[in-house]
Amino acid sequence: MPLEPAQETTEEASRQTIHETIYPPMSKPSARSTLYRLIEAGQLARRTLLVPLLDRNLEPGDDAIIFALRSRLGATEAALAEELGLDAAALDPRLARLAERDLVSRQAIGPDLVQGLALTERGERICEVLSANWDQLEGALFGELGDKQRKKLDKTLKRFVELLRLT
After folding, report:
1. Cβ distance 103 to 66 under 8 Å?
2. d(Cα 94, Cα 103) in Å, to the nearest integer?
3. Which of 3-7, 26-30, 54-58 is least confident?
4. Does position 28 have pLDDT exceeding 70, yes or no?
5. What is the CATH number of the domain that holds 127?
6. 36 vs 84: CA distance, rounded Å
């Protein structure tokens, strides 16, 4: 039996009240809150870190591969994928593109001549540019802080990240 218009309105209002009780509307964050500023700083920092990548026709995330290979000469594709949290299907095309641009090479490494990955000379130079950009940004972040304050901020941010990963 169809509902009368008044009953429909009442039922809709009831559903809306239940929805708002279960899913209360989010309040707008204050631009003065520390979390808001932290998020804003993170977004702006990432945008700043993308500039040297995009200037060199690289893609977001290529920097993670380049930095990982710098610290792990001869890393296997499987080890690199695990370190970056990527599956082989996502990593393979990136590596192929970086190899095509002469940033990464595949080399036989070790006594067993296992296929490993390494940065080329050009890849090393780009890594230096990217590292300098990171250092400059960190200098801006920590510039006004003393050693104790830097360590405390670093420790606090690490703890915050770990708490967020648990959720």
Report:
1. yes
2. 11
3. 3-7
4. no
5. 1.10.10.10
6. 27
Q: Which of 120, 35, 14, 114 is nearest to 70 (CA)?
A: 120
Residue-range definition of the domain harbouring residue 126: 49-166
Locus of tokens 């026709």: 57
> pLDDT tens for residues 108-164?
776 777 788 999 999 999 999 999 999 999 998 888 889 999 999 999 999 999 998
145, part of any domain: yes
For the chain, give the DSSP string.
Answer: -PPPHHHHHHHHHHHHHHHHHHSPPPPPPPTTSHHHHHHHHHHHHHHHHHHHHHHTT--TTHHHHHHHHHHSTTB-HHHHHHHHT--HHHHHHHHHHHHHTTSEEEEEETTTTEEEEEE-HHHHHHHHHHHHHHHHHHHHHHTT--HHHHHHHHHHHHHHHHHHHH-
Residue 121 lies in a domain: yes
What the block records as the tokens of 57 is 């026709």
Burial degree of 54 (CB within 10 A; 0-12, 13-18, 19+): exposed
